[in-house]
Design a protein that fits this description.
The chain has helices at about 20-25, 30-40, 50-60, 80-90, 130-135, and strands at about 1-10, 40-50, 70, 95-100, 120-125. It is globular and about 35 Å long. Helix 3 runs parallel beside helix 4. With about 140 residues, the chain is α/β, with parallel strands linked by helices. Bound molecules: 1,3,4-trihydroxy-5-OXO-cyclohexanecarboxylic acid (DQA).
Length: about 140
C-alpha cells in the first residue's frame, strides 16, 4: 500500500472560512474524508501547521519512508528557502499544489522557492488540486 502525506501550511486550517471567493467554502477536514474514501487503496495521511519549522520537521519525519508528499506550503511557497532545502534533502518526491491559480494573482505569488525541487506543480483547480496531486503518485 502506497503511503502518501498531504501537508498543508499556514492559514489552510481556516479553509471554508477564509476568503471563500478564492479558496471555497469547504473545510479541509471534510474534504480529506472524501479523499480517503476515493483513494481507499492508499495509506493517506494529513498534517497541517502554521509553523514553518513544524512543516520542515514533518518533511524530515516522512521523507525517507513515504512514497509521496502533496504539499501546499501556502505563503511559505513564496518565501521559504528552508522548506525548499528540506524538499531537496529528503528522498520522497514532493508535488507542490495550490488551490488558487497563483499565476493569476499578485506577482509576489508567481515566485516559488519550492518549484525547482518539486516533482511537479498543480495550481488553480480548487481542492481538486490535492486529488490530482495524489493521482500523480499512483
Ligand atoms: C495558496 C496560494 C498562496 O499564494 C497563498 O499564500 C495561500 C494558499 C493556494 O492554495 O492557492 O495561502 O497556496
Amino acid at each position: 500500500m502506497k503511503k502518501i502525506l498531504v501537508l498543508n501550511g499556514p492559514n489552510l486550517n481556516l479553509l471554508g472560512k477564509r476568503e471563500p471567493g478564492i479558496y471555497g467554502n469547504h473545510s479541509f477536514d471534510s474534504y480529506f474524508e472524501q479523499l480517503k474514501e476515493k483513494f481507499s487503496s492508499v495509506d493517506l495521511h494529513y498534517y497541517q501547521s502554521n509553523v514553518e519549522g513544524e512543516l520542515i520537521n514533518k518533511l524530515h519525519e516522512v521523507g525517507f519512508e513515504f512514497d509521496g508528499i502533496v504539499l501546499n506550503a501556502a505563503a511559505y511557497t513564496h518565501t521559504s528557502v528552508a522548506i525548499a532545502d528540506a524538499i531537496k534533502a529528503i528522498e520522497t518526491p514532493v508535488i507542490e499544489v495550490h488551490i488558487s491559480n497563483v499565476y493569476a494573482r499578485e506577482s509576489f505569488r508567481h515566485k516559488s522557492f519550492l518549484a525547482p525541487n518539486a516533482k511537479g506543480i498543480i495550481t488553480g483547480f480548487g481542492l481538486k488540486s490535492y486529488d490530482l496531486g495524489i493521482q500523480s503518485f499512483l
